[in-house]
Each structure stands twice: as structure tokens, then as C-alpha cells.
From TrEMBL:
GO terms for molecular function: oxidoreductase activity. Pfam families: Amino_oxidase. This is Phytoene desaturase. Keywords: Carotenoid biosynthesis, Oxidoreductase. InterPro entries: Amino_oxidase, Carotenoid/retinoid_OxRdtase, FAD/NAD-bd_sf.
Amino acid sequence: MSSLAGTTIDVVGGGFGGLSTACYLADAGADVRVLEKNEQLGGRASRLEVDGFRFDMGPSWYLMPDVFERFFGHFGKSTDDYYDLERLDPHYRIFFKDGDEVDVSADRAEVRELFAEYEAGGGEAFDAYLEESESNYELAMDNFVYEDRPRLRDWVDLDVMKAAPVGLKLMGNMQGHVEKYFENPKLQQIMQYTLVFLGGAPHNTPALYNMMSHVDFNLGVHYPVGKDGRDNGLGAVVDAVVDLGDELGVEYVTDAPVAEITRRKDGFLVATEDGTEYHPDLVVSDADYAHTEQELLPEHERQYDADYWESKTYAPSAFLLYMGVEGDVDELAHHTLVLPEDWDPHFEQIFDEPAWPDDPAYYLCVPSETDETTVPDGDTDEYSNLFVLVPIAPDLEDGEATRQRYRDEVLADIAENTGVDLRDRITFEKQFSVSDFGERYNSIQGTALGLAHTLKQTALLRPSHRSSAVDGLYFTGSFTTPGIGVPMCLISGQHTADAVIDDR
């Protein structure tokens, strides 16, 4: 008999954390229902389709393919059952604002040569850095990511003790760590751009996250191609996890914003804004943790007060422009970064003195360079599909006038630094920023990602999967361990389900 047979569980929120948790719980025998606020599943991995253009609105990088294969493998499946992977080459293109341009190839040997061109000994330093990065990746994944350690006593473990000397050495920040290997500022930026995916900055992210370079250069950057009518891109992965849940018996309810979660003697009351009531035995929340605590639970059932959430360091929000344009943009790669010579002022305007960045570092996603299905009639000679993402501080004022001013500045910056002038070619445009993250995803301060991966917000210092105030209430997603990003949220789902199973 399955360990959760006869148990009804509502998962509030259909992001990757909630979808993953639902699969694990259903596989353990529970009757699982996912209640999603918006019109589609996927959470921040929403899709926008209009006028023949299709956009991944949130995550657009497919990294850590081993995590996805592990997830599906748990259920006797493979990613190949749902989608194929196309390795991108180049992985990404970088335009430096001094006029320099580099392609980061899928061929590691070519990247090594690139590093050697920028500074004497750069190739050897690249090899040494990646060797350490791979070692740290294996150490971290085996001991701290796949293995949840929510209590201090969980850290009293032989494997942890063996890993401790390495971990302690990497408690400094990323900037100091990278400087030990590379003098050239551009090489330092290449090794640290992935911090954007963790919602951090070089000066506040632990050096342990140098493992992301192994993810980049060794594991590769891919693009999912859906099978059996599924979308391509990250939408294909959402569809795959949803389809897996279907096969396991998960029920999905969209357009169902939850207004209340209350503990009752015989379980829970979960009420949606339209007055529908559900009565599960247990509840898992994949809604933003702070929103669940402050808005959905009665005050006496909250673990943390408003001061707790106010004291936290949040990952950046974003200013996004989704654009369908006439003609090609072949100067841009599928993933393109535009970086100033000195990006410290941009990070300072995110974390230290919040303001709209004066000289931004930003990202351009151009899926039409790879995928003809993202433009009308598949005509990539006639149309291009792209979005620009500028990381900005959470909680910024983003009224219409401010957005319009910044939109014009960003488009001018793109033209100046990439040679691609989009301004007279845009046939479709949609903006998305701080207030939209708050409205669509109930995101505290409009953060695009959740809690930043600072030293004080890593591992057991992140909020728990279990509520300490309400028996039977659990949490999953990017606020919990292991943290931010699609792969981490998939793993978070397993941690949450394991906690439920252990407790029952």
C-alpha cells in the first residue's frame, strides 16, 4: 500500500515547485489537486502567445540537464519521452559596451583559447577554475542540494564533515574568488554572469556558486523541443511535468486564486476568491512564501511576521520588453548578453542604493534564431521574436512614464551596442515589470525570483519546507531549499514531498 494512500492534498500554486511536489505526492499514493491562480500552469514560466508570436515569459535558459533527467527518472520516465534537447552553439554571445564582442562556444577547447587570448595563462586558469567548479558541483549536489538538511543536527554527518573544509574555503564572495584566477575584468564577468540566475551579485553571493561554471561550460546550454504537439522552449518542460502529473492522477484547476488557508480539526479549508471551498487533509503552498504567510493564513498561524520579511534580501525584479519585430536580427544569438565595462554600479543600484540602472547590464533572448515556431507562419526572414530583460531592484516605482522613459533608453542602448536598431520595426510589444510580478504572481516587492542566495539566506537559513506553526502545512519553491531556478524548484518538490511522507 502506498504511504499516502487515502490522503487528500491541495497544492496552492502551479509553478515548477508545485508541479514537482504534486508528482511526487501522487506517486506516493495521495489524491493531489493543484490550484493555480492564473489561466495557465507554470508559474513564472508562463507563456505569451499573440499575433503569431510565442514567448517564454520567465525562465528561458535550460541548464543542468542532469537534474531534469533525474526528476523524470524517479517516475520511470526520461526527458526523451516528452521533449528533445538542442544544444545551442554558441551558448551565448556577449557584447561588451567598449565595442568588443565574443561568442562563448559549445566547444570547451574554443572557450579555453578565448580565455588565453585575453590574458597570459588564461587557458590554464580556465582549466583550473573548471576543475574546481566541477568538484564543487558534485560535492554540493550530492551533499547539500539533493540531500535536504533543514535542522542543525542534520549537518552532523560524516559526508558533511568531509565536505566542510571545502565549504568553509568557499564562504567568501564570488568576486574575491574569481579574482584569484583571472585579472581581466571581462573574463571575470564571463565567469559570474550566471549569478543573475541566482538573484545575486558578485559581492554578496558565496563563492560556492562557482559550481555554475561547470553547469555552463561542461553540462551545456540547451533548448527544449517539444514532442506530440507540445510547445518548444521552457514551455515544453512545463507541459512535460504537467503531462507526467496527469499520468499520475494529479488534478489541475486553473483560474483559481486562493484567498484563504485555514486549519480545521479534520484538515484544512482552502477557499478561492470566487467562494469555492476545498477540504484537503494537507496543504502545500507553492505560492510565494511571504504572500502565503501574510495574506492567506490567519495571523495566529503564521511563522514569521512582517518584520521578518522586511529584513530579507530579495533577488532582483526585472524590466522586460517582449517584442515581435519585422526582419531578422542575425547579429544577436539565441542568448545574448550586453555588459558594461564596469557592472558594479548596476549591482549597487539593485542591492545597495535601489534605482533604475544608469548603465545597465542586460539579457536578450532571441528564440527565433533557433525556433521558427516562435514567429508568424514560421517565417524567420520576415519576423523575429525577442525579449530584453534588465535586472532591477525590487520594490521600485514603475509607473507608465517611468517605464516609457526606460524603454526608450534600453532600445537606444541595444542599437548602440549591438548594431540592431529595433525601434522602427516593432509590430508587437508588451512590457512587464515590478508591479506586474506583484500582481500576476503575488510576489513580495515584485521580485522576479524570490530570496537572493546570500550567505545568510543559503541552506537551512532559508524558510523551512514545514510550517512550524501549523501541522500539515508545507511549502515548496524558490523561497525554500535548495533555492532559485527551475532545476532547484524541481528538487524542492522532492524535498517537500519527502517531508510530507516522513511526517505521515
